[in-house]
Amino acid sequence: MSNVHALEAPSPLLDEAANERMHLMTFLHIAQPSAFERLLIVLAQGVFYNLFFLLYLVSPRTAHRVTGYFEEEAVRSYAEYLAGVDSGTHENVPAPRIAIDYWKLAPDARLRDV
Length: 114
Fold this sequence. Notes:
This protein is mostly helical. Helices cover about 75% and strands about 0% of the residues. The chain is built from five helices and no strands. Helix 3 packs antiparallel against helix 4. The longest helix is centred in the middle third of the chain and has 28 residues. The protein is globular and about 50 Å long. The N and C termini lie far apart (about 40 Å).
């Protein structure tokens, strides 16, 4: 059996990864981190990547559970942030062009729409 069909249909996991990447790119456009903050992020990613790799080698099941925990925390974080936007704690800024194009939002879309 050929693997051609596997290449034709996008994977739901790849779609989810692209969606997560676009959320990060959107918030990078909004937050405008400094060069120092970007350096800290890269260093933290390097440390995390290596620790996660080792964890996966030792216990794949635990590594998958850690990923699930991060996803649960992401949902909570988004919910808290949206509550802050709704309450006026965080400004409902215009959505960046990158988000408008990716999610096909209205040209006047706001952060809440993203």
